[in-house]
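Hi all, long-time lurker, first post. I run a small reading group and we've been trying to get comfortable going from sequence to structure in the token notation. Rather than ask abstract questions, I figured I'd post a concrete chain and ask someone more experienced to write out its structure so we can walk through it together at our next meeting. Sequence below, copied exactly:
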Amino acid sequence: MFQLKNMNEFRIFRNLSEEQLERFRKVIQVKKFSEDDVIFYEGEVGDSIYLLLDGQVEINQALTLQLSKGDYDTREKAIINLSSEMFPVFGEMSLLGADDKRTATVKALTNCSMAVVMKEDLFSICESDPSLGYQVMKNVADIITDNLVKANQNVLKLTTAFSLILEK
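-- Answer (accepted) --
Happy to help. Here is the structure in token form:
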């Protein structure tokens, strides 16, 4: 069984009791990644969430949309770098989306340790204990909402810059 003292520092597990956290400890797998390893790619089907236990990662997103099956542009933009001191959780978007697709690529900047919770384990635990499930899903909603607000601010900045360029 996985032992993590600061488990409730990760937003997804905030406001859970030790007994509730223990249920997740039983299903967590620890995975190691080397510097420059890709943890997952944007567009892949996601079946898990990741908690960064040690190290640093970079979150990237494609700069362009795929227009056709043969027309694929691989340029990416680094969105944010995260370190384990921030207790980041990622992969949550693919757990709730209709197509279960990853919305970004995550790459290890250093050697990393990750705690992984499989989607089926997460939902099984949440469904078996409605109060725990409510709190975890509220935490996931808070994470997604904060990410959406940041994304909207970035879109506003980009459209403003684009508009200013067109005015010249």
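A couple of things your group might point at:
The longest helix spans residues 130-167.
The first strand starts at residue 29 and ends at 33.
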